[in-house]
Every structure is written in C-alpha cells, then in structure tokens.
Design a protein that fits this description.
Layout lengths: L1 H13 L2 E8 L5 H14 L4 E5 L34 E2 L6 H8 L3 H14 L1 H8 L6 E5 L5 H4 L3 H12 L3 E10 L6 H18 L3 E6 L11 H6 L4 H5 L7 H17 L4 E3 L5 H15 L23 H20 L3
Parallel strand pairs: 1-4, 1-5, 2-3, 2-4, 5-6, 6-7
Helix pairs in contact: 2-12, 3-4, 4-5, 4-7, 5-7, 8-11
Length: 332
C-alpha cells in the first residue's frame, strides 16, 4: 500500500507523467518485461499503461481486452500473458506498409518509421494525454542503432517532455543472459549499454534478463554485474579471435573501465521478487527528478540498491570531481 499511496501523492504534487523506457536488442525480452511489470504495477494498485513504440511489433496487435487486476500469483512461467497496449504506434505507422511503399529493408524502414513518428509526435501526445495519472511503460524497437547512432528516440522523448508538460522517465536496458557465456558478446553488450546511457541522457538501469536460464558463469555473477576489469574476458578467450580482434576488444574494455558507469542487475520475469526489486530501483532512479518530494518516497530498510562498491565510487569521484579542480587551481 505504501508503494501505491506515495506514487499517487507524487502525481498529485508534481502533475506530470512518469514511466519507464524499455530498450534492448531484439530478443532481449522487452515486451515480456513490459507484461510482467504491468502485472506487478497492477498488483500494487498503481494505474499503468503500455505504450508500444515498435512499428514492427505484432505482439500487441489484435490482442483481446483483459483485466489488469492480477496479483503476484499471476507472475509465473505460464502467467506472463501479453496485455493490450493503451497506445499502439502501428495505428500511425506500420513497418510492413513502409517497406512496401518505400522499397526499404527492415532496418531502413524502421529508421524511416521512427522519423515519421518524430514528425507526427503530436499524434502520440494526443493519445497519451488521457493517461495522466498512469505509470507509462514505453516498449521501444529492438534496433540498437536507434539508441547508439541516431538521435530520433532521444528527440521523441524530449518532445514528449515538452508537450506533455513534464515526462520523467527512466530507461530500463535489457541484455540477454546468453551473453554471459561469451566474453566478446558481453563486452559488446556492455559497450552498447554505455552508449545508450550517454546517448539517451536519461537515468538508466541495466538488467541481465532471463536469469532463470543461467546455470553457471565463468567468473561468477558478481563479476558480470559490476562490469569492471573486463580485460579478463579478453585474456581468457577461447582462441577463436585473431590478435587484431583481441586488441579491439581490449580497447573496448578499457573504454568501459574508464567511464566506470555501467553495472547490471540480474532479472527474471518468473520471479515476482525480481520484478518488484526492479520497480523499486526505477523509483529510486526517478526520485532525483522530483523537486522537493524525495522524502515522500518510502522504501523498505533492505531495499535493493544500485550503487558502486566504495572503492569504485571513490575512484569515480576523484576522476570527475577533484581532477578538474586540480587542473584549475594548478594549471600545467
């Protein structure tokens, strides 16, 4: 009840929209995550709506109306059922029609479709306006170029923030757990997460999805969740990579270590505790965006945290806070 009461109080005080922007590569489990989170939010009595921003997703197409009054018992291997989206971008633009009319491929057609959404963002605003007071789940496309190479997604959410009178969103970036068994793939996924964090300019939580499929890892789970010292993945390769490829991976790992920003949280849609822990993380990520209302949010004493280890936190503070001051006080 405290989760519901505080959230509704914040909505009344701030009069703005709150939500999660769910991103990740194709097959990472974004739509399944939205279904599980929607059921969890409904179970804790929060009004919630899913916004489908994927012009190629058929998951929400022609779905029957279903009740959102489901509890934690519904969250299970057979309980994660697709719910209808409150707003479906395919009513505005559909990838199949774009490909037929423009003779573009899937990637080019999706880029064209999202640029069309940006040009007609007022249609999206009109659809979202009646959902004031609802927690919004934005199910985004799985084309990773939209988040690390193109500005279209960032511009869409900036426009929504301006036209809705305030949209406070937290990015939830999903990485498939299959990358834990492949060092180069995990380095690539971590670099993609870092690029999305920098590019989207929003609070971000990185999740390793489908953790119920993981049986064992080479370095232990904490090594992958902290995402530090990834050079070990390059040094302990399987011999398939060439010398040049190992050098490139080592460079990527060094970039990730230098930024010291990426960390992961294990996640499974089949575990209600994992879904609830992720919800609390998102609430904490949104709290700094709330002016003079952080004290209104109450969390359990043992709520999961998303903090760096003390040594890494000190290292980050020294790098970003003290060094510029030293160069200012003692110029070379």
């Amino acid at each position: 009840d405290f989760i519901r009461a505080d959230f509704l109080l914040l909505l009344n005080c701030q009069a703005m929209f709150f939500g999660q922007v769910v991103t990740g590569a194709a097959g990472a489990g974004k739509s399944t995550y939205c279904d599980a989170m929607q059921q969890m939010l409904s179970a804790v009595k929060r009004p919630v709506s899913v916004i489908n921003l994927d012009p190629a997703c058929e998951r929400y197409h022609d779905q029957p109306e279903s009740s959102n009054s489901q509890n934690d018992a519904a969250l299970g291997p057979k309980g994660i059922a697709p719910n209808p989206a409150a707003v479906d971008i395919q009513e505005l633009v559909e990838l199949k029609k774009v490909m037929e009319t423009t003779n573009l491929g899937p990637n080019g057609g999706l880029m064209y479709a999202m640029e069309y959404v940006l040009e007609n963002v007022d249609w999206l605003v009109e659809k979202i306006m009646p959902l004031e007071g609802h927690f919004l789940l934005f199910d985004c496309p799985g084309q990773i170029e939209l988040f690390v190479a193109s500005n279209v997604i960032r511009q869409i959410f900036k426009k929504l923030d301006e036209m809705l009178g305030g949209l406070r969103a937290c990015v939830v970036h999903l990485v498939d757990s299959t990358s834990l068994s492949d060092g180069p793939m995990f380095i690539s996924s971590t670099l993609t997460s870092l690029s999305a964090m920098i590019h989207l300019e929003l609070p971000q939580i990185n999740l390793i999805s489908k953790m119920d499929n993981v049986r064992d890892t080479q370095f232990g789970l904490s090594f992958y969740t902290q995402a530090q010292d990834l050079q070990a993945l390059v040094k302990r390769g399987n011999g398939i990579l060439s010398k040049r490829q190992e050098q490139v991976l080592a460079g990527f790992a060094e970039v990730i270590d230098d930024y010291c920003l990426v960390g992961f949280t294990p996640f499974s849609v089949n575990e209600p505790k994992s879904v609830l822990a992720t919800l609390l993380l998102c609430d904490k990520a949104l709290a700094p965006c709330l002016s003079n209302s952080v004290s209104l949010i109450r969390f359990p004493a043992r709520a999961p945290t998303f903090a760096l280890p003390p040594s890494q936190a000190i290292r980050q503070v020294l790098r970003w806070k003290l060094l510029p001051l030293l160069f200012r006080w003692f110029p070379p």
